[in-house]
Model the fold of this input.
Amino acid sequence: MKHHIIIYGCQMNHSDAERIESLFEFLGSKKTDTAIEADIVVAVMCSVRQMAADRVFGLEQKFKQIKKTNPKFKSILTGCVVENDKDRFAAIFDHILDIKSLNQWPVIVGLTDNKTANDDYFHILPKITLAHSVLVPISKGCDNYCTYCVVPYTRGHLESRPAKDILEEVGRAVRNGTKEIWLLGQNVNNYHWENIDFANLLRQVNDIPGDFWLRFTSPHPKDFDDNAVAAMAQCEKVTPYLNLPVQSGDNAILKAMGRPYTAARYRLLVKKIRQAFKKYRRGPEKEVAISTDIIVGFPGETKTQFQNSAKTFKAVKYDMAYIAQYSRRAGTAAAALDDNVPPKEKKRREEAINNILKKTALAHNKKFVGKTGAVFVDSIKAETPKKGPALFALGKNRHYKTVKFPVSQDEVKPGDIVTVKITKAQSFGLLGRRVL
Done:
């Protein structure tokens, strides 16, 4: 048997795919590079935006082609699947399965008659994709029900994993040489297990022996209490980077989105986080890099309300932002609202926010010029400039800034942490040279 996994969307989907891969490997199946070579294809889908769902719908013709040459071919859809889309997906996929039932998949799909206990799928050890950077889910699901978001409907209520399991998974990865750990959750900082909250968990993971970087995503501003802020700043393995979604800078729009904070409260939280790093960190790490997520063109967003978002961007001075034009998703509360901001206006607002971001990001990045620091290598790329082929390494520093620097053949590899001196700043990246 051969299988192929197609992954769309967030890091949680990539993490789930690692457990799916582990299951198929246990069954004796071999992984293929393309879907057309496989007997089973699993699509781990994202439903955050309609565009993401449309990509999965686009698999229909490919599957029909495969079945012509392989009548026994089977397809499975999992991940974030909206209920309203299931009827249409049922015409494309042989099975639509919840990731929580992963232990039962072999029986459901007809690969074996050996039933397993109805156990938590997190107990399946993941087949790590990148040994140097490991994704560790600490919870699943979300209870926030933001009016634009399908996650609570596709992932269910928030459930935290036992702290013991998380610590064992992180410890095992670190002992195997992992140098970067990502703690994952749809609402990562709302973690609670018995008497352990997110701040406690951060401290316990930080205390695991080994030299590794610790990052996490995706937090909610409402769940960032003073203990979590202090823990993040005090734990030396936690890198000085935070993605803190704002979604809007206007109070009325935030309320319509179901986001229980005001723009002023959000800015105060950012101020607390920055003050905590200045208090507890030394050198360049006294400055924490902050990115955000924002939606422009939410139903009913006026030009004045959008300007409040622009003002928030100017006030916070983000290092990076992930800007999305509002996309209606059936089944969410916002889907009942009039999507009355024209596409051209949504695009204009996205560009306006991006122009503010370019200026603040460049200003932050210029602070790194002339300084030397550690860079975690992600990949090696070849380019063909006028003077001939050249190799460059791409990686992230501890502030999660993209760093590009020239290397020679076999000089470095993904997962290496090397010292780089920054020579030039760009809005969305840094250029440098390796220091031996």
Observations:
- The chain has three domains: 2-121, 125-366, 372-434.
- The two ends are 47 Å apart (CA to CA).
